Amino acid sequence: MRRFEFKFQRLEEVRKAGVVELRARVLGVRMQIAEVEARLERLRAGLEETRDQLLQARTTPGDYSLHMPFELYIDLLKQRRARSAEELAKRRKELTELRALLVEANRELKVVEKVHERKVREYLLESLSEEQKELDEQGILYN
User: Fold this and answer.
1) Are 73 and 50 in contact (CB under 8 A)?
2) CB atoms within 10 A of CB 22
3) φ, ψ for residue 7 (rounded to 5)?
4) Contact criterion met (CB below 8 Å) for 16 and 117
């Protein structure tokens, strides 16, 4: 009796490795998105705090030149927030593309796995029929 050998075993292993790699990349991008969202939240909180301080400084009598650093800092925070929002949009787009690649890789892996299952069934049926033939020849099996 011959031994079972799946000719596409290497292809199946490569596809599985590809799926695992894509899952890791998706997880990495998700973590980056979470970091950017946290940064945006911190910027929003800092912006609100600085605006409150500016309003408080405007209501107290004194030199108006003290207001300028607050306004410059608010502008800086707005620029950082805009850059972070752009980065977040870029990461989300990258995540969408990676998910599409992951879906395609899973489909390809599923095809190879189905072929593997079919080949195993064929091998089992073939080996069973060979065994039955041997038993028939020996006269052990009575039909």
Assistant:
1) yes
2) 18
3) -70, -20
4) no
Please give the model's pTM, rounded to 2 decimal places.
0.71
**Quick count: other Cβ atoms within 10 Å of Cβ 105?**
19
4, two tokens = 């079972």
Query: What is the number of residues in the chain?
Result: 143
**Contacting residues for 77 by C-beta, under 8 A, at least 6 apart:** 43, 46, 47, 50
Those residues whose C-beta lies under 8 Å from the C-beta of residue 26, and which sit 6 or more positions away, are 95, 98, 99, 102
Question: Residues 11-61: pLDDT tens digits?
Answer: 888 999 999 999 999 999 999 999 999 999 999 998 898 888 877 777 777
